[in-house]
Amino acid sequence: MTDALQIVLARRPTGDVTADCFREERVALPPLADGQILVQQRFLSLDPYMRPRMTEMRSYTPPFALGQPLTGGSVGEVVESRNPGFAKGDLVIGMLNWASHTVHDGKGLRKLAAGGVPLSAWLGVLGMPSFTAWYGIKHICKPKAGETVFVSAATGAVGQVAGQLAKLAGARVVGCAGDDDKCAWAVREAGYDACFNHRRERDYGAALDELCPQGIDADFENVGGKIFHAVFERLNNSGRVAFCGAISEYQDTQPIAGPPKMFSIVQKRLTLQGFIVSDHVGLMGDFVNEVMPLLPSGKLKSRETVVDGLAKAPQAFIGLLKGENFGKLVVKIS
Ligand SMILES: NC(=O)c1ccc[n+]([C@@H]2O[C@H](COP(=O)([O-])OP(=O)(O)OC[C@H]3O[C@@H](n4cnc5c(N)ncnc54)[C@H](OP(=O)(O)O)[C@@H]3O)[C@@H](O)[C@H]2O)c1
């Protein structure tokens, strides 16, 4: 019999997530039934979308169940199998519990080839966040040489890839991030033309006027709120917004107003498009084929924050909502 360490949702947050929203439990897992596998987890991805799922808010994914383990993208190894589709030793990726081990029926899990890239990369630069960046840039922002693209949360898991892909398409790319080191990395390593520190800079409009003197042709929006308002006002005719997320609003208890002057959507013929990456899984192969070759040459760089130990996942997640991670946040479980 295997014991599993798991993190369950103990309380739904109102406002900021706090440590008492989580509870650590040790449970004895039941023997496998026919069709089941036992996965020993290696890495767990922590992502902003988990915050809305902690509430009862109706969204594109159901809320986490109270008293049950939270779930997330995870990479692990099959250590026992009663499912003909999986063998002991297979590496798999998919939605698993915040846990050391998960019993699973195998549905929705994808096998990974061992080697080539670090396992955690399948949760970041070759995984969901990077796929999100690729989709939003390629299918919505559609940057052209000479255009200006703005990326908020420029060094996050999604933003760092979005900025680099826009740059590879020939655009001038400007971003914002939450500290000077992040901004320096964005310019020095990721090739952004400029990046401002949104925690130090209070007049976002003035910062954008200085760094985007020709206006903004496409916005890859990760943050929402006041940063988005300032960007929206500076969109050029035929501007595009890939509305990916609004992390600055996820912990707000009151709805945030949209930007003023919405009629400019008509006047400037703007396209504002929200998207959810899981609607586009059919394009995952195209994404991997395009992005994987960019890695060995360093044409696409990526940063990760790796937290050691499942028990640290709650605190790491609280930190993610305050910008404490630098690049893709993953938890090393084993
Ligand atoms: N539509 C989709 O299918 C999809 C898929 C994946 C992700 N997303 C969304 O994409 C966005 C980025 O996700 P990610 O995976 O890149 O997250 P991430 O790696 O955790 O980065 C998020 C970053 O957002 C910044 N941030 C946090 N709170 C902020 C605030 N109040 N104001 C401004 N910036 C803040 C922080 O960086 P700084 O230090 O720079 O502030 C933080 O590191 C999120 O909104 C997420 O929900 C959407």
Instruction: Sum up the overall morphology in one term.
Output: globular
Hetero groups:
NADP nicotinamide-adenine-dinucleotide phosphate
CATH superfamily of the largest domain: Medium-chain alcohol dehydrogenases, catalytic domain
Give Rg in angstroms.
Answer: 20 Å
Question: Into which percentage range does the β-strand content fall?
Answer: 25-35%
CATH architecture of the largest domain: Alpha-Beta Complex
Query: What is the share of helical residues?
Result: 10-25%
- Compute the average pLDDT: 96
Q: What is the CA–CA distance across the termini? A: 18 Å
What about the largest sheet?
Answer: 7 strands, mixed
What is the overall number of helices? 9
What is the chain-wise order of helices and strands?
EEEHEEEEHEHEHEHEHEHEHEHE
CATH class of the largest domain: Alpha Beta
Would you count the extended β strands for me? 15
What is the fold named in CATH at topology level of the largest domain? Answer: Quinone Oxidoreductase, Chain A, domain 1
Written description of the protein model:
Helix 2 packs across helix 3. This protein has nine helices and 15 strands. The strands form three sheets. Strands 3, 4, 5, 6, 7, 14 and 15 form a seven-stranded mixed sheet that branches. It has 334 residues and is α/β, with parallel strands linked by helices. 22% of the residues lie in helices and 27% in strands. The structure holds NADP nicotinamide-adenine-dinucleotide phosphate (NAP). The site of NADP nicotinamide-adenine-dinucleotide phosphate has 32 residues, from helix 2 and strand 15.
